[in-house]
Design a protein that fits this description.
- This protein has seven helices and nine strands; from the N terminus they run E-H-E-H-E-H-E-H-E-E-E-E-H-H-E-H.
- It is an alpha/beta fold.
- The chain has a single domain, classed as LmbE-like (Rossmann fold), CATH 3.40.50.
- Strands 4-5-9-8 form a four-stranded mixed β-sheet. The protein has a three-stranded parallel β-sheet with strand order 1-2-3, with helices on both faces. The chain has a two-stranded antiparallel ribbon with strand order 6-7.
- Helix 1 packs antiparallel against helix 5, helix 3 crosses helix 4 and helix 4 runs antiparallel to helix 7.
- The longest helix is centred in the middle third of the chain and has 15 residues.
Length: 203
């Protein structure tokens, strides 16, 4: 999994990870490595998810100035382990909610790296959520080909990580968002994903 921030892995796909503990999970998180609060929480989350991972420190300041494409791509390649994966998960070009530039940049970089052959995988899945232009908390896209209603036990553990490990309050945006249904767009070729990117990540 390739994400922008510590908590994205749990928020958008934590249920999938928890449901498949025997899979060889690796989470590359591109921001907040030097954040004294979020970095140790990410490490603790990896332990709770029985996953490996690594963090980068791309700029994630409040201004959210655009980053050069090459910088995002190189950050991904610098964190990604030298082994082949059957499945990569990452952000969607729409960014899951309105709107987060880093999510969009990471999605674009992952798709282009796959298309250029610098990332290899049999399948790419991008997170499939929308927030009705900020009219409600992010929810699973109705048209997404993969949509999984999480069993209560799995969702409660996912929620525990968000609130108990990351420390988000029960009334926070993150806790209130934590999806009970996880959804993904699915691509079996990089050409499909690139066309999706060029169409803005929309049906």
């Amino acid at each position: 999994m390739i994400v922008a921030h510590p908590d994205d892995e749990t928020l958008w796909a934590g249920g999938l990870i928890l449901r498949h503990p025997s899979w060889d999970w690796f989470v590359a998180c591109l921001c907040r490595r030097d954040d004294e609060d979020r970095s140790p929480k990410f490490i603790a989350t990896l332990k709770a998810l029985h996953a490996e991972g690594a963090m980068g420190d791309l700029d994630d300041g409040p201004e959210q100035e655009p980053l050069p494409e090459a910088a995002v791509e190189e950050a991904i390649l610098g964190l990604w382990p030298a082994r082949r994966f059957d499945l990569i998960l990452s952000h969607n070009p729409t960014g899951e909610y309105t709107k987060h530039l880093r999510h969009q940049e990471v999605s674009q970089a992952v798709i282009k790296l796959w298309h250029d052959g610098r990332l290899t995988t049999k399948e790419l899945r991008t997170f499939a959520y929308e927030d009705g232009s900020q009219s409600y908390y992010p929810r699973a896209e109705k048209l997404a080909p993969i949509s999984d209603v999480l069993p209560s036990k799995i969702w409660k553990e996912k929620y525990r990580i968000m609130t108990g490990v990351y420390g988000f309050r029960d009334d926070s945006w993150e806790a209130c968002t934590t999806p009970k249904t996880e959804a993904f767009w699915k691509f079996s070729t990089s050409e499909q994903a690139l066309r999706w990117l060029e169409n803005g990540g929309k049906k």
